[in-house]
Amino acid sequence: MSKAIIDSLFAQSPQTRKLGESIARSEKNIHITGLVGAASSLVMAEVFKKTELPFLLIFNDKEDA
Questions:
Q1: Helix axes 3-12, 39-51, angle to 10 degrees
Q2: How far apart are CA 14 and CA 11, in angstroms?
Q3: Residue 36 — left, alpha, or beta (φ > 0 → left; ψ -120 to 50 → alpha)?
Q4: Rounded CA gap, 32 and 39, in Å?
Q5: In this structure, how many other beta carbons lie within 10 angstroms of the beta carbon of residue 6?
Q6: For the chain, which terminus, N or C, has the lower number of CB atoms within 10 Å?
Q7: Nearest to 58 by CA among 35, 29, 23, 20
């Protein structure tokens, strides 16, 4: 599966869109759970592309980061 297909799947996800809307509304303390491996990086990359707003990610430990 190509990166473009994977990116489009994450971009079309209702959860990804909801996360982007929450960030765009400047909601604070947004918690994201249930993502494993590179999924968190892919989701955050899509959200960043859509919102074009700066945001800060805080992880529990350096392995998650």
A1: 70
A2: 8
A3: beta
A4: 11
A5: 14
A6: N
A7: 29
